[in-house]
Amino acid sequence: MSVTKDKQHVEMHLEPALGHLQLGRLSPTHVQALIKTKTDEGLSPRTIRYMRAVLRAALNDAVKWGVVPRNVATLVNLPRASRSEIRTLDPKDAKKFLDAAKKNRIGSLFSVALAVGLRLGEALGLGWGDVDLNAKTLRVRRALQRVDKKLVFVEPKSERSRRTVSLPDFAVTALKRQRTAQKVERLKAGSKWNGSGLVFTSSIGTPLDERNVRREFDDILKAANLPSMRIHDLRHTCASLLLAQGVHPRVVMETLGHSQISLTLDTYSHVLPALGAEAATKMNLLVGVKRGVKSA
User: Fold this and answer.
1) What is the CATH number of the domain that holds 15?
2) Which side of the chain, N or C, has fewer Cβ within a 10 Å radius?
């Protein structure tokens, strides 16, 4: 979990609701009431689960130190997590998207996100020091997020989210195009240029705001005559295309920075039946009985 994100949950949700209670008097009823309140307020199940995880981690320490006899955060019912519909681009539409992205000022951001499944925050936090165009690799070590109305760098979601991935050639070309375009913008900006060292920036070198990035993304979809989707669906597209090409799920897991392979398999289970049929065909070609030959 991210320290900055944890602090945000403590200050926004946990402390206002539970801060007045003595730790020894905190009960499952208090935590369950907090969960109900946040659910009624419209907080997403995913956010509520994270909030509970922050509390659970803190209480685990309290149990270990003998301050409380049990972790009451483990004794509550959580709202069922609703999974957003996954939309992906097939190879033909992915090519249309990449072609349209070339004509957009920050189109390279989306090309790289599709190529290696970056989360938006990871792409926004990418620095030139994280990119090795000669080795064709990219390192994910931080993300850029808006916290308390300010853009800040935060730790990756998990230890596996901190990763180094290999770049396909079209992503290397997109990054080279971005590097050239940024040099031109830096010259035009002159003394106004902000030397953030980020790969994807505004025209004066400052970090990009998510809202502006989403508008550019929508423009690319319209230019490519593609249906509406989320930027995060580029990450899903990356995984689905890799799996459809027979790339091992563990490699996909490491590329996306999933914490467990079960998460990869569960999220992209819709791709796996086709892979199973393909595997059966390949096995038959390898050791199957030839036509015209009777089996024993």
Assistant:
1) 1.10.150.130
2) C
Q: How far is CA 195 from the centre of its chain?
A: 26
Residue range 228-249, pLDDT digits in tens? 999 999 999 999 999 888 888 8
Whether the per-residue pLDDT at 292 is higher than 60: the answer is no
Judgement on whether residues 7 and 137 belong to the same structural domain of the protein: no
State whether 107 and 218 are in the same domain: yes
Instruction: Identify the CA nearest to 52 among candidates 28, 68, 70.
Output: 28
Instruction: Find the CATH number of the domain harbouring 208.
Output: 1.10.443.10
Predicted TM-score of the model (pTM): 0.70
Shared domain check, 97 and 67? no
Q: pLDDT per residue over 132-155, tens digit each?
A: 999 999 999 999 987 777 888 888
Q: Give the angle subtended at the CA of 119 by the CAs of 118 and 122, to the nearest 5°.
A: 80
Structural domain of 159: 91-242
Do residues 58 and 128 share a domain?
no
Q: What is the tally of structural domains in the chain?
A: 2
SS (H, E, C) the chain: CCHHHHHHHHHHHHHHHHCCCCHHHCCHHHHHHHHHHHHHCCCCHHHHHHHHHHHHHHHHHHHHCCCCCCCHHHHCCCCCCCCCCCCCCCHHHHHHHHHHHCCCCCHHHHHHHHHHCCCHHHHHCCEHHHEECCCCEEEECCEEEEECCEEEEECCCCHHHCEEEECCHHHHHHHHHHHHHHHHHHHHHHHHCCCCCECCECCCCCECCHHHHHHHHHHHHHHCCCCCCCCHHHHHHHHHHHHHCCCCHHHHHHHHCCCCHHHHHHHCCCCHHHHHHHHHHHHHHHHCCCCCCCCC
The tokens describing 92, both together, are: 């033909």
Do 45 and 109 lie in one domain? The reply is no
Position of tokens 């003595």? Answer: 22
Q: Which two tokens stand for residue 135?
A: 């080795």
